[in-house]
Amino acid sequence: MNPSVLVVEDDTALCDLLAWNLSAEGYDVRSTGDGEEALVMVREQAPDAIILDWMIEQVPGIEVCRQLRKDKETARIPIVMLTARGEEEDRIRGLKTGADDYVTKPFSPRELMARIEALLRRSRPALAGDVLQYADLELDPTSHRVRRDGEPLHLGPTEFKMLRYFMERPNRVLSRQQILDGVWGMDSDIDERTVDVHIRRLRKAVNRPGDVDPIRTVRAAGYAMDVS
Amino acid sequence: MNPSVLVVEDDTALCDLLAWNLSAEGYDVRSTGDGEEALVMVREQAPDAIILDWMIEQVPGIEVCRQLRKDKETARIPIVMLTARGEEEDRIRGLKTGADDYVTKPFSPRELMARIEALLRRSRPALAGDVLQYADLELDPTSHRVRRDGEPLHLGPTEFKMLRYFMERPNRVLSRQQILDGVWGMDSDIDERTVDVHIRRLRKAVNRPGDVDPIRTVRAAGYAMDVS
DNA sequence: AGTTCCGTGACAACTTGATGACAAGCCACC
DNA sequence: GGTGGCTTGTCATCAAGTTGTCACGGAACT
């Protein structure tokens, strides 16, 4: 699922420009020009990041920011403040209120994209490509968690390392020796056939009845994980 | 303990200015003008944030940034790039390389301070004086108080530090060694198994009968606090 | 049919984490 | 200075989870 961004901006032309750019980068974009509505939308849709103009109707941007930070549910959503006011005082006030970044008009859309990406990378590593995935398989090396189709799976340490080894090398046939070296370490004198057994265990842990087996056996060569 | 910042800047005057400002805000400041040395210092001192000049001796700042991001131990330290080059391309390149923010000279020290604080707030909320709050657990670093579901809990000093260490790093698997380094200090020669015992004590203090245990044991790896 | 290669169930040895107990240390307060 | 209550680092022990092999049977290839 793509990361979603809420754009709060009452200049329609600018709003469209941003929306277009963000979409092109693969974000799901929603937008509004109204502060009150923004607060509602955030609660309903829980976007992954917010671009917030300082000067909008109904509620000033900075007030929206304050409100969002106050509520536990929304306190951790990254916010980029956007404004024509370039004064230092304003920038500092924006940042102190809880904005994560502050960009002054006129700005470069590409730079704004880069800043959004940097923020997402920090707040939701899962959205910035840190998490390995194959179709409905998902492996997070940091939190050591594996999911299939959203369901958490339980893998033993070796199975985990092995799955990770495969997911880091999708679509490649890996020989038993390569797998031994990669998962057990270069200097292990373990029987090659042992790999078979662990492949079986991994399959058993990953596949629920009716699932497609993501691990392909390549006769006389080894195993591979298919990513299509 | 105050948050620590490493300043990597070879213009001595500017370096001192930054150091002075940061100290005044209560940060522990270290500095160097050399890229190679910076890499060593980061590994040794694990600062909470880094201010990095693009143009420094030995190794270009962007290369330092790349190196830091490559290493898992240092990948999550917030980095602010600092530079005279105001070109959009450079800014975007800096951000894409993994910098979290990018400030162009000449800049306002106060704004830089605000940006550092905003970054710390996101990466280590406790350092910015915020209350850490996940699920029904609540830890206030300032008043040294912990609550679960509103109920005040009684934790020993070590348990408190440990819980805080976990809450500052939610969802991450932490090895026993990391926990020892973070809670007891880098230079403690304490048995790794001792961590187990303190985990038990923390669990006992935090979980009332029927509660979900927020601390997950990851076999052969360590422990993690789950929040999502 | 013969050969090679892989899947599988069983299993005993081994790791690893949880737990209760305990003595030493620390501290505040008499 | 003494004392009792907490805290804390280690240990020994226990239960559970994990792992490397093996033997057998079926599948694939020649």
UniProtKB/TrEMBL annotation, chains A, B:
InterPro entries membership: CheY-like_superfamily, OmpR/PhoB-type_DNA-bd, Sig_transdc_resp-reg_C-effctor, Sig_transdc_resp-reg_PhoB, Sig_transdc_resp-reg_receiver, WalR-like, WH-like_DNA-bd_sf
Subcellular location: Cytoplasm
DNA-binding positions: 129-227
Pfam families listed in its UniProt record: Response_reg, Trans_reg_C
Predominant cellular place of this UniProt entry's protein: cytoplasm
Domain (Response regulatory) ranges: 4-120
Family matches, as Gene3D superfamilies: 3.40.50.2300, 6.10.250.690, Winged helix-like DNA-binding domain superfamily/Winged helix DNA-binding domain
Function: This protein is a positive regulator for the phosphate regulon. Transcription of this operon is positively regulated by PhoB and PhoR when phosphate is limited.
Protein name stated in the entry: Phosphate regulon transcriptional regulatory protein PhoB
Gene: phoB
